[in-house]
Amino acid sequence: MNKAIVTLILLIFPWLAYAQSCGNRDLISELDAADRAALDALVAPHAYPEGNLYRATKGDSAVTVVGTLHLPDARHDAMVRAVTPAIEKADLLILEATSEAQAEIQLMTATAPEMFFLTEGPTLIDLLSENEWARLTAILSDYGIPGFMAAKFQPWFLGMTLAVPPCALIDIQQGKQGLDLLLENVARENSVPIAELDDLEELMDLLAGDPLEKQLEGLRLFLSMKMENDAELTTMVERYFQGKAREVVEFSRLTLEEKNIPTELFDDMMQGILEDRNIAWEPKIVELVAGKDAVLAVGAAHLSGESGVLRALERAGYTIERL
């Protein structure tokens, strides 16, 4: 995968935070009839294109599959209430990554600063064009981040940082959590074992493994796509709560076409961030849930498609039911 465009995925499936105070603008609802038809045509071929909650059963094994949003939102409370009984009686909760893994990544900023910061050589002031730096500093002003400080961020890390809208910073400071970690809390309160699907080393290579020039390509793409009022982010959130994560993925493809950005870059990103991870997860999931009652909670975009976790369970002989 060309990991340089990983900053794009942070606009589509951000890791960190969202606040309902950011607004609720839904760009998909604003599409004209032609674009709406084009979006529907992109969504239709995918297996399980809608829904955030499913049950998979095979013999004595039952798996509750939850499509999650990794961002804080008060509306998660309803899903937590719905899934808590399944977690309480489960043999296992399976997540992409646990809170410990996320804390370990944060610790790496101190133990391996070269992964996150430009510790030697030219800074972003030198590496970006004058216009690109002007666009970047205008965005930085909303965050209260001095340009001289941001200039030393690795491009992938700066893109990830700026994917969090300023209106969400209070939520971060208050320690609010996305759905994955809320479900993890329920499991820990009930002494339910927890397994994770992602390997931390592989995940960090996905985020930070590209050479600097490719990271710069990703940052430039981020700068070209970032919209006023973070409308792309609010669109993602609103569609998630409608159970339509696949629409967000395909809408992003349409957005790229409108900006004359080659969709090959998007396909490459989706292959690495989504499909390759799904493929790597499949044998792990099948082994972990065999003969168990389990809850599998992963980002909602991982549910749909031929490589998605629902198809993976089907291939393992499970019957799938949308809840």
C-alpha Rg (nearest Å): 20 Å
Structural class: alpha/beta
Number of domains: 1
The largest β sheet comes out as:
6 strands, mixed
List keywords for this structure.
disordered N terminus; 53% helix; single chain; 16 helices; 323 residues; alpha/beta; 6-stranded mixed sheet
Describe the structure.
The model is unreliable at 1-21 (pLDDT under 50). The radius of gyration is 20 Å and the shape is globular. Helix 1 (6-12) packs parallel to helix 12 (212-225) and helix 8 (155-162) runs parallel beside helix 12. It has one domain (3-111, 166-322). A hairpin with a 2-residue loop joins strand 1 (53-58) and strand 2 (61-68). The chain has 16 helices and six strands. A six-stranded mixed beta sheet has the order 4-3-5-2-1-6, with helices on both faces. The chain is 53% helix and 10% strand. With 323 residues, it is of the alpha/beta class.
Give a short synopsis of this structure.
This protein is α/β, with parallel strands linked by helices. It contains 16 helices and 6 strands.
Topology:
Elements: H1 6-12, H2 33-43, E1 53-58, E2 61-68, H3 76-88, E3 92-95, H4 99-111, H5 124-127, H6 130-143, H7 147-150, H8 155-162, H9 169-173, H10 179-189, E4 194-196, H11 200-208, H12 212-225, H13 231-241, H14 245-258, H15 263-289, E5 293-299, H16 309-315, E6 319-322
Parallel strand pairs: 2-5, 3-4, 3-5
Antiparallel strand pairs: 1-2, 1-6
Helix pairs in contact: 1-8, 1-12, 2-14, 3-10, 8-12
